[in-house]
């Protein structure tokens, strides 16, 4: 199924008068506080978020998995799903592949297909948290941290293979997330495991092309529950520093203990030019992988405030690679991603509204009440007309979720692919 620009333009027609009225009203309000609505719309249009190839099927838990009918069963179909999402939202302009779940067979055909949807290939992701059929050594006791040099070499070689695949697709970055860690005290030696991991990462870094970036993700627990080797941003930052200037920390919103001040982590990393990648999701208790903005939208806004500040004030920090890393059990994955993209743009737009000069002034005067008012004035503004206008300008749907349902996208995909079609990977 493909959605044409004409179809979208027709469906947008009915909503144009309401949008124009809402946009003009908001535009006037913003103008009073010195903000240019058209400039904000352009910034929203430019903001692109990668969709990982594993987010297009229903996610599972360790108790089971409930598939969604018409899930994409091949890499081609996954690209088509991201294409649909991009047609509807104009915000999902890249796909992030997971290797070995999504190794292209015919590179030219895959690249042509992505290009036909206007998609780029974002960071490639390696997998040393599972054993693959026929693999010589098991990752049961770790991969890049493993005590046996042969296991380590196998894991390093896999990461280098992922880099080579990414090169062929025009990707320019590798994301490493390690499940490595231990379930019980004493199971391994902390210092030795860390040093072996640092050495492995340096070898992977050395195998990257000159223009590539390495993103090192951290996570405090799961699947190992006593300790993970790369447990927090500090460990990731240190390992990235060991590798070199093109290695960065990757922040995944779900990879923190409850109530961690993620906005401060973002600020700290950006001040040192070391925030390379950013994974969006939301959570209540742990790495819940829920829809972005569904649980803690104010925290997301505060994080975006720091991201916007960093993007403005830290020229040494490259533009972070944005990706949605969510996967759950219950919603239609495409509808879920539409909601996530909306929440991301909403938080970004609100962060752009913060009067930074007034905030600085209030901070200097220790006017704590005013500081909060400035943040919350921005947060309480309904910025949806800006988002809708940016989608309209990009030829996408003013209301992507409504169009998804009006065009019966899932029903069509199920008809094309069959109700038993299952996403590969997770
Ligand atoms: Mn992640």
Topology summary:
Layout lengths: L4 H9 L2 H17 L4 H10 L3 E3 L7 E2 L2 E2 L9 H15 L4 E3 L10 H10 L3 E2 L2 E2 L23 H21 L3 E4 L4 E2 L7 H17 L6 E5 L9 E2 L4 H11 L3 E6 L9 H10 L3 E6 L16 H17 L7 E4 L8 H21 L2 H9 L3 H12 L4 H10 L6 H7 L2 H9 L9
Parallel strand pairs: 1-4, 4-5, 6-7, 7-9, 9-11, 11-12, 12-13
Antiparallel strand pairs: 2-3, 8-10
Helix pairs in contact: 2-14, 3-14, 4-5, 4-11, 6-7, 9-10, 10-11, 12-13
The chain binds manganese (II) ion.
Manganese (II) ion (MN) binds next to loops.
Account of the 3D structure:
With 426 residues, this protein is an alpha/beta fold. It is 48% helix and 10% strand. The chain has 16 helices and 13 strands. The strands form four sheets. Strands 6-7-9-11-12-13 form a six-stranded parallel sheet. Strand 12, helix 10 (297-313) and strand 13 form a beta-alpha-beta unit. Helix 2 (16-32) packs across helix 14 (384-393), helix 3 packs across helix 14 and helix 6 (149-169) runs parallel beside helix 7. The protein is globular, with a radius of gyration of 22 Å. The model has no long low-confidence stretch (mean pLDDT 96). It binds manganese (II) ion (MN). Residues 177, 217, 252, 279, 325 line the site of manganese (II) ion (MN). Manganese (II) ion (MN) binds next to loops.
Q: What count of helical segments does DSSP give?
A: 16
The backbone outline, from C-alpha atoms, is globular
Q: Assembly state here?
A: single chain
pLDDT averaged residue by residue:
96
Provide the low-confidence segments as ranges: none
Sheet of most strands: 6 strands, parallel
- Overall radius of gyration: 22 Å
Helix/strand order, N-terminal first: HHHEEEHEHEEHEEHEEHEHEHEHHHHHH
Q: How many β-strand runs?
A: 13
The percent range for strand residues is: 5-15%
Strand order of the largest sheet: 6-7-9-11-12-13
Bound heterogens, unique: manganese (II) ion
Structural class: alpha/beta
Straight-line N-to-C gap: 24 Å
Percentage of residues in helical conformation: 40-55%
């Amino acid at each position: 199924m493909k959605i044409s620009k004409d179809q979208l333009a027709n469906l947008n027609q009915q909503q144009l008068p309401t949008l124009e009225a809402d946009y003009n009203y908001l535009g006037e309000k913003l103008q009073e506080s010195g903000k240019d609505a058209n400039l904000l719309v352009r910034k929203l249009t430019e903001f692109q978020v990668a969709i990982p190839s594993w987010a297009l099927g229903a996610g599972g838990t360790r108790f089971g998995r409930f598939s969604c009918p018409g899930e994409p069963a091949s890499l081609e179909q996954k690209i088509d799903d991201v294409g649909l999402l991009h047609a509807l939202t104009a915000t999902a302009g890249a796909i992030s592949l997971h290797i070995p779940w999504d190794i292209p067979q015919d590179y030219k055909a895959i690249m042509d297909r992505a290009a036909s949807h206007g998609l780029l290939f974002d960071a490639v992701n390696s997998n040393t948290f599972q054993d693959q059929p026929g693999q010589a050594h098991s990752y049961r006791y770790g991969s890049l941290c493993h005590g046996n040099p042969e296991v380590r070499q196998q894991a390093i070689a896999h990461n280098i293979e992922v880099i080579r695949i990414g090169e062929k697709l025009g990707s320019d970055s590798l994301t490493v997330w390690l499940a490595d860690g231990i379930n019980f005290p004493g199971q391994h030696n902390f210092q030795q495991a860390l040093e072996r991991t640092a050495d492995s990462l340096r070898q992977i870094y050395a195998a990257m092309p000159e223009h590539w970036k390495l993103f090192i993700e951290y996570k405090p627990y799961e699947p190992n529950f006593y300790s993970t080797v790369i447990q927090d941003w500090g460990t990731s930052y240190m390992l990235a520093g060991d590798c070199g200037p093109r290695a960065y920390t990757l922040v995944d919103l779900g990879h923190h203990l409850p109530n961690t001040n993620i906005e401060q982590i973002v600020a700290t990393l950006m001040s040192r030019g070391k925030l390379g990648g950013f994974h969006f999701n939301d959570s209540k208790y742990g790495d819940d992988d829920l829809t972005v903005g569904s649980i803690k939208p104010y925290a997301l806004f505060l994080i975006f405030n720091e991201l916007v500040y960093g993007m403005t004030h830290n020229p040494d920090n490259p533009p972070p690679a944005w990706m949605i890393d969510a996967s759950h059990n219950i919603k239609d994955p495409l509808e879920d991603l539409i909601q996530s993209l909306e929440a991301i743009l909403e938080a970004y737009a609100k962060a752009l509204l913060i009067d930074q000069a007034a905030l600085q002034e209030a901070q200097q005067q220790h006017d704590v009440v005013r500081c909060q008012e400035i943040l919350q004035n921005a947060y309480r503004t309904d910025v949806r007309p800006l988002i809708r206008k940016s989608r309209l300008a990009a030829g996408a749907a003013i209301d992507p979720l409504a169009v998804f349902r009006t065009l019966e996208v899932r029903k069509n995909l199920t008809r094309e692919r069959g109700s038993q079609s299952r996403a590969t990977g997770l």
